Structures are given as structure tokens and as C-alpha cells.
Amino acid sequence: MEVNIEQLEKDFQAKIDAGISIEPKDWMPERYRHQLIRMMSQHAHSEVVGMLPEGNWITRAPSLMRKMVLLAKVQDEAGHGLYIYSATETLGISRDEMINQLLTGKAKYSSIFNYPTLNWADMGAIGWLVDGAAIVNQTALAKCSFGPYARAMLRICKEENFHQKQGYQILANMMQGTEAQKQMVQDAVNRFWWPSLMMFGPSDKNSPNSDELMRWKVKLYSNDDLRQRFIDRTVPQAEAIGIKIPDDKLKWNEKTRHYEWGEINWDEFYAVIGGNGPCNRLRMKQRNDAHKNGQWVREAAIAFAEKRKKNKAA
Ligand code: FAQ
């Protein structure tokens, strides 16, 4: 029987428009599959590379409690990577292939993780701002059209909420401390504020993938809409604990009921996603080293699984 692609595409779009989720065995346009693999694998890589800037502080956390919380958070990020890699595998790509794309620099990961973490307050700023931005983005993705991605996001968002709160609590505590601690907080926020806004991607007019992804309800809101949502909910949190947002143009607009704000340095954004941020090379080296050093663990796990299979069969 001849397959009518046009009809299949129409039915597919009708399903999306009706809010029915697409599951791995359903028919889907190759382009939908391709776009999801691109976006989801980048997301998984971001979770995994995102462990590096925070991992840097586990041995230097200021108390046992802080160390335990940070360790748990970093482990959560590894788990998020695994959920999203698994969800992406349902689209027909293997985890090995995705990881190979990351290690060889073919795949992107979030620009934010190419910035250094210089003082303890950076752990607070990452939790509050980076996880805060991730929640805004991922709460929308939890309602996206592809079932496995949406379901992974539900659980991830719950954990990200805990991450965001622990980050805010670190900063709130430090803001009640000494002058030097307050300055550390302000310094961390000065460095992480703008890169956090860049996490939402280029402005709508320069976002080549948005139209298609929004038509397919992979993205429910545009990059700029989500960025604005993040700013609107984050500025009052900064004010509540005495942090100054490093943007002279920031002001509340009573008419629109949104904050107006300054201009992102897009040259910096494109440099960072092009591989030339402050830590791109370091992150790729750290990830490649970790992969090499973990080779024996993967081999041992495979050997163990094979032995168990043989024993069961015997
Ligand atoms: N960084 O056409 P668009 C986390 C690329 S997880 C790097 O607008 P799209 C948890 C984009 O890929 C954070 N590249 O693209 C955590 C495309 O390039 P390509 C990660 C970026 O896909 C917290 C090109 O620019 N979250 O934080 C960035 O429609 C703390 C054109 O852009 C996700 O990945 C960027 N910021 O929208 C872990 C969420 N922005 O692929 C540890 C899922 C854009 O054509 C510690 N992803 N690009 O070569 C998304 O929502 C979307 O993919 C966007 C980009 C919004 C990132």
C-alpha cells in the first residue's frame, strides 16, 4: 500500500493541535525526530556538563551540611542527564552516539556552564539563578508534545525546585553575614545574572528553530517570553534579600506589569556557544578525561551483566 506522507503529516499536526502526546512508536516526521534529538541530547549534555562547575566546590563547601546538600544536588544533575538520555534513546539514537557527539564537540550544551565558579556564593547563584532559569524553561517543556520528554521533565522540575531553594538559602544566609560575605554574593550575582538570561537562547527574531518547534508544541513559549517570565519572578526575590541586579535599565512597568530591562551582550553569547567562552576548553577536557577514566567502570559493569546473564541461563 502506498504511504501518503502528506496525510500522515496532517494527522500528526492534528494530533498535536488536539494536545495528544506523541509517543516513540507513533508515526512522526523525520524532521520532528531530528529536532527532538538535537534539543533533548543538548539538554542531557547540559545536565552532565553542569555537574562540573559545582563539583569544583564539593571539597570546599563551608560545612558538612552544605557539602551533603551540594553532593546530593550534583548527583541529581547526573540523574537528570540519565533520564533525558533515556528519553532521547526512544527516538532511535544510542547513548554512545550522543555522548560521542558531546565529547567530539559536535553537540552543544548550555552556554552557562562555560563560566567559572570563583567563590562559594557562586554555588548559591547557580542554584538560585541557573536552576531558577531551568525551572521556567522546563515547566513549559513538561507540557511538550513528546511524551517521554514531558514525563522526564515532571520529575526533574521537582528536583530543580529543591535546587533553586537551596541556592537562594545560601545567598539569603550570606546576605545576613559580614560585609565580605555580602560582597561575595553581589560579585557572584554580577557574574551570573546576564549569562543566566542567555540560557533562554537568542532573541526570538534570531532563533532559527523556534517557529518549527512551536508549531509542533515542543516549545510552548518563545525564548523571549520565557526570559521575561524568569526576570519577573526573580527580581522581587533579589530585592527581598538585598541583592542588586546588575542592570541599570531594570525597572517595573506598571502598565505592562513586567520589568523592562537592558540589552544582552549577544556577541558574548555567540562567542560562548561557538566554543570561545571562558571555560569551554576546560569543560571539554574535564568531560573527556572523566569519560576516559570511567572506561574501566563501564567495562566492569558490562562484564558483570554478561556473567549474570550466563549464570541465569545455566
Ligand atoms: N547554550 O533556534 P534556537 C540546567 C543554540 S539544564 C548553548 O533558539 P532552540 C540544569 C541552539 O541549540 C540547562 N546553545 O534553538 C542544571 C541552536 O543551535 P543548534 C539546559 C544555545 O533549540 C542547573 C542555536 O543556538 N536546558 O540548567 C543556547 O529552539 C544547574 C539557535 O537557537 C536546556 O537545554 C544556550 N543557552 O532553543 C544543571 C533546555 N541557546 O542546535 C546543573 C532544553 C540557544 O541549531 C546545574 N533546550 N542555543 O546548533 C531548550 O529549551 C532550547 O534548546 C533552547 C534553545 C531554549 C536552549
Keywords:
314 residues, mainly alpha, Ferritin, two-stranded antiparallel sheet, 2 strands, 67% helix, binds Phenylacetyl coenzyme A
List the helices and strands and how they pair.
Blueprint: H1 5-17, H2 30-49, H3 51-55, H4 64-89, H5 95-103, H6 121-141, H7 147-174, H8 179-198, H9 210-215, H10 223-240, E1 251-253, E2 258-260, H11 266-276, H12 280-293, H13 295-313
Antiparallel strand pairs: 1-2
Helix pairs in contact: 2-4, 4-7, 6-7, 6-8, 6-10
Bound molecules: Phenylacetyl coenzyme A.
The site of Phenylacetyl coenzyme A (FAQ) has 29 residues, from helix 2, helix 6 and helix 9.
Can you walk through the features of this model?
α4 runs antiparallel to α7 (147-174). This protein has a single domain, classed as Ferritin (Up-down Bundle). The model has no long low-confidence stretch (mean pLDDT 97). A hairpin with a 4-residue loop joins β1 and β2 (258-260). A two-stranded antiparallel sheet has the order 1-2. The chain is mainly α. The protein has helices at 5-17, 30-49, 51-55, 64-89, 95-103, 121-141, 147-174, 179-198, 210-215, 223-240, 266-276, 280-293, 295-313; strands at residues 251-253, 258-260. Phenylacetyl coenzyme A is lined by residues 38-39, 42-43, 46-47, 50, 54, 77, 108, 110-111, 126, 130-131, 134, 137, 198-202, 207-210, 213, 223, 273.
